[in-house]
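Sanity check

After download, print the first record. It should look like this:
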Amino acid sequence: GEMARTLTFFGFFGFSRRSMIRSKCIVILNDGYWQGFFITTAVSNAVYIAILPSLAVEEDALTRAVIEWIDVGFLGVFYIEIIVGCVGFGFRGSPNAWFNRDFFNRIDFFIFLVAIYEQTTRWLNVDGFTLLPLRLLRIVKVVTSLRRFASVKAILLTLGEGISQLLVVFGILVAFLAIFAVFGMGVFRSSFSRRCMSLPVQVPACPSGSMVAPCVAAPCGARSSGSSGHLNPNCTFLPDTGVFTMNNTEIIAPGYPWYFPCKIYTPTRPEQYNTLYPPTLDGKFHSCQLNNFRAGLPVHQTCAETINAQNGFQHFDDISGAVLAVLQVALPDSSYDILHIGLEAERAASPIIYIFILSISVFITFLVLGLFVAVVTGTFARVRSRQAKLEIARIAREKAREDAEWIVYEKWQKQNAGIDEDARLAPRYGRHDVLGAAHSSVPPSRPSSKYRVRPSSGVIRIRDHGKEEEVVGAAPMPLGGFDFVQMDVIAAKWMEDLRVKRVGWAAIALHLVVISCLVQDFQPAALFVALGMLCDFVFVLECVGRYMALNGLRGMLFNFKARNELLLVCVTLFGHATSTTLLTLLPVCRVYRLMVYLPTLEDLLDSAISSSTSLVNLILFIFICALCAGVMGRYLIGHDMDHLTRSNFGSFLHAMLSVFQLLTGDSYTIILYAGLSSQDSIYSRACVGIFVLVWFFMAQLLINNLFVAVIIENFQVSRTMANTRQPGYWARLRGTAHTSWTKFKGLGHVRREGLWIDKQGNIKTEHMQ
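Expected structure tokens:
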């Protein structure tokens, strides 16, 4: 009994299963108005969090207090939503409990813990790592409530189901990074901070241009001031005065990275490096101007230690910098920096450096990152397969329910055979409650289907580019005795005719040529305009044919290619009416229809088109995640990077551009090193580094692989390979040309022999005419 009471307390927060408070909580959870209120609050909270960094609240205490109370209000509604769910369904006591019944409830619980952390650090005045923008993840729950974007949940389920495997692979990645970082520290410690610096050189006052080269070879002060070629005649300084210049200045290299790395050698015995390397001022030796030294020329440079590259963050001096340097090679971004600086700074270890860089590419870039691809794509395939089975089961349940309703309806018909005929033949569309329907005087009705097959002509099947599509529409109404159904059948056959299709393809090719000529201002322009109008007329006729064949506008909207063609025709006509050049150029998108001549490429294009819905859902998910990352960068970094790079978080637009740059992986080290350079304390640098690397890893290892998973889901390898073995239109065209040329050559041969061929292909001589 004590254990049962404990489970009841933790399950329903102390309320029994039959408690009135718990029943009221369940009513709230199932009420549409309350759910709308919770959704509106979540969206408003997201907007508030997104615009808060742009508001000037530091100087205005009143505004700051109002904003804090608004945040408390949003959190209060959020806490109420969670408490109502936990009281109504229990927290985690059963499979149907609040925490277990939905994946988004787990996200809400995580955000609840984040909110508790934020409130605690605020009340204690602790400068902690802000997690406030993570509340924007609640938008995902709002979006997936729309049926159009329901596939976003599959993405979240993929990440949730594969999290254990992803953590294992990520652990392997961290292990490889640590191994290579430790090895790099043993090879390159203090190597990336050494530069070739200039020694003090004595030059005369006001030297001329021809004086620079001689001053390098000999002390300029020893030269005579009367030499007319050595001094500037316009100089007013004393001619024999020598000065020291370029002392301890970094030598500028002719190419990137604009400096010369070098190596310092410390001798262990006398005269060990005397003939091998030039000496330094402190009795050591270096590798600067090594070719001049070995050629017997003067050396005016030395090797000295200075700050590391990338504002001191690109090095192998400690484990943090070594990991970043290895990561720069593993996820390539200016990885040649590490390679060439290492080769210049450690010339004796060149073979080891080549093996080191190659091993990073093999074991991390190809192997470990390939494991991420395998895990994400495999998990996504399993989730989508399971969802497909659940969808089939749902459809089967709905069909069984409809069959049960029909049984009730037939039973009602038998029991109420004597009622009014009009009532008995009432429309059967619309949902009803089947309980007690057999004893009611009102006839029950069957739920309407998604598509109604028209009774007059049934289903019209139209072949579009070799692919059969089923189009179902409402029954057309006859007008004036004219059979529109027969007209639809004729239009369907007309659209299936290969000659009509060839006319359309020729119009597309001609239209592309016309648009190209008009863009280049070729003459005569009137001819190209006329040809363009002719092509537009052909497209309009084709669109009318599709309209009739697909039984009206509804059928066209359900057909992907017909819908796109209708959109292009409308855009073109609107562009001509408004003289908008951009709109008149959009019809070049019809070039995808010419892929019919390349069946393999057409099949790949169809695979990409079939995955468009999933891609739209994935792009929406990426946008929400990028929005969270951009807003978090606004809170965490703000204007600190504005003076270092244009890829900063100083405004909302710049923050989103920087997040997109990290998403694509283009020059991500600029944002990483600039973010580290913009902070003063170790703690703030660690926060910025973790933020940038977490979003970068998420983008490169998860989001990009989700794109691959979506495309693979709709890509059929066997069908593509079969299409590669089938001859396309180009092969048929080549075969027709070859056959025609062969016949033409044969015809010329028989004519030279005095023979001729009749229409039946029989060879005859002249006397047989």
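If your output differs, re-run the checksum step. Summary of this record's structure: The CA atoms of residues 182 and 319 lie 7 Å apart.
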